[in-house]
Amino acid sequence: MTAAEDIGLADLATQPEVAEVIRTLARVARELSRRIARGPLERHGATVGENSDGDSQKALDLIADRAVFAALQGAPVRWYASEERDEVVPLTPGAPLALAIDPLDGSSNIDVNMSIGTIFSILPAQDDPLASFLRPGREQLAAGYVIYGPQTALVLTLGRGTALWVLDPETGRFEPAGPLAIPQRSNEFAINVSNYRHWAPPVRAYIDDCLAGETGPRDKNFNMRWVASLVAETHRIITRGGIFLYPADARRGYDHGRLRHVYECAPIALLVEQAGGAATDGCDPILDLVPQALHERTPLVFGTPVKVHRVAAYHDLPHEEVAALFGQRGLFRQ
Ligand SMILES: O=P(O)(O)OC[C@H]1O[C@](O)(COP(=O)(O)O)[C@@H](O)[C@@H]1O
Ligand SMILES: [Mg+2]
Ligand SMILES: [Mg+2]
């Protein structure tokens, strides 16, 4: 069985519009991959403005957004929602699909030649532009990301498994490289620990117990990774397991974390669930949540299911347990 059949890509024959949008995005990704490789990275990574959320916009953020928007002219996409645009933009009147996109993810990594990406979510279009996007992530028809790293690769789900496609720079084709399944055991966690003092007690307690290693309630040592690129983090975790956390914290503007629900959390959650992982806001599955605004942020915890469920359990602990020194956190002593 080919990867295409494994993840239901064979079904694309019955969803020709979704297939057309994915092919268009793959073509844009191929071109972006070339532009990134060519550089100069200092220019691609230069700050050129600010988006509606107050995030700085790099030159490549806008190049990627404009490239996707231009390529979608005439495509079966009625509504276009991008991290780089304040509002939903109409594309093809009456077309059946809505596309949400983070055209360039991990933009703080552009100038240092680290992995960056593009994240996308395809939904059925409704007459109301916002209503097309403000719905549970389970209603996505397809979700994916492209990672621009040592290899450029596409990771895609149509809701029946998740699979990998690797760009061959010689032929310019994305070649199928098989279905992906998140390993069920791992000792890696990913979180921006510089925010430790801003976290809520359950998140601190979870990370305290990881840091305590074999001297703490978990009785084993952990390793930490933080690339500051959601796509790169997702790719590592889908490949070799682990857990990612971008929780809410006490900084101004971070009361729902940093990551945007519609075009970051929801597509990553579908990809992760379809690869056998779990994705929550710390407690509840991301795919069951209904965002209230286009650029809404949601805390995101995803990865190997047993780890993600453990984080939820820390949120359920009585206050005295969370506040206890890790050595005495009896519930988690194995
Ligand atoms: O710099 P921080 O706070 O660690 O945040 C890193 C996170 O921000 C992001 O870069 C946000 O995405 P954008 O680059 O698309 O704004 C994520 O990819 C990453 O996980
Ligand atoms: Mg992003
Ligand atoms: Mg971005």
Automatic annotation (TrEMBL):
Entry protein name: Fructose-1,6-bisphosphatase class 1
| Annotated ranges, domain Fructose-1-6-bisphosphatase class I N-terminal | 17-174
Classification via PANTHER family = FRUCTOSE-1,6-BISPHOSPHATASE-RELATED, SEDOHEPTULOSE-1,7-BISPHOSPHATASE, CHLOROPLASTIC
- Would you say which domain of life the source belongs to? Bacteria
Localization annotation? Cytoplasm
Q: Which CDD domains match?
A: FBPase (cd00354)
Reactions catalysed, semicolon-separated, are: beta-D-fructose 1,6-bisphosphate + H2O = beta-D-fructose 6-phosphate + phosphate
